[in-house]
Amino acid sequence: MLAALLDWPQATFASAVSVEGEGLAVTREVDGGLENVRLSLPAVVTADLRLNEPRYATLPNIMKSKKKPLAQMTPGDLGVDINPSLTVLSVEDPPVREAGSKVEDVDQLIAKLKDSGVF
């Protein structure tokens, strides 16, 4: 949805991403194997589990990070507009469906379908 709203190209389930010139080369996993896609920038890319290996923090680095100052910023400091751009007009429940009925055999099912005009 984000790519459609921005009118940007997208690549989903990326397992490898590399920059090639003015765009991206994305390898994505599909049912039949791997698919290579080239995108122009800017683009929306979603990641697969295998895209990155996590780095685990060591205890000394955790202790060092506690001493560093944490700068707090507002969206306005970053030039981001957080006002909603979509308006919900209404939310309605779907129509209630009629209860089903059981039939004893195939002949009764066919007769019921013929009576309802489906068959």
From TrEMBL:
**What's one Pfam family the UniProt record gives for this protein?**
ETF
Where is this protein primarily located?
mitochondrion
Keyword Electron transport among record annotations: yes
Q: Name one GO biological process term.
A: amino acid catabolic process
Swiss-Prot/TrEMBL keywords: Electron transport, Transport
Among PROSITE patterns, the record links this protein to:
ETF_BETA
Report the locations given in the UniProt record. Answer: Mitochondrion matrix
- Top-level taxon of the source organism: Eukaryota
Q: Which Gene Ontology cellular-component terms appear in the entry?
A: mitochondrial matrix
Q: Which residues form the Electron transfer flavoprotein alpha/beta-subunit N-terminal domain?
A: 1-75
**Gene3D superfamilies the UniProt entry points to:** HUPs
Write out the function statement from the record.
Heterodimeric electron transfer flavoprotein that accepts electrons from several mitochondrial dehydrogenases, including acyl-CoA dehydrogenases, glutaryl-CoA and sarcosine dehydrogenase. It transfers the electrons to the main mitochondrial respiratory chain via ETF-ubiquinone oxidoreductase. Required for normal mitochondrial fatty acid oxidation and normal amino acid metabolism. ETFB binds an AMP molecule that probably has a purely structural role.
What protein family is recorded?
Belongs to the ETF beta-subunit/FixA family.
Q: How does it assemble?
A: Heterodimer composed of ETFA and ETFB. Identified in a complex that contains ETFA, ETFB and ETFRF1. Interacts with ACADM.
Q: What is this protein called?
A: Electron transfer flavoprotein subunit beta
| Biological source species | Geodia barretti (Barrett's horny sponge)
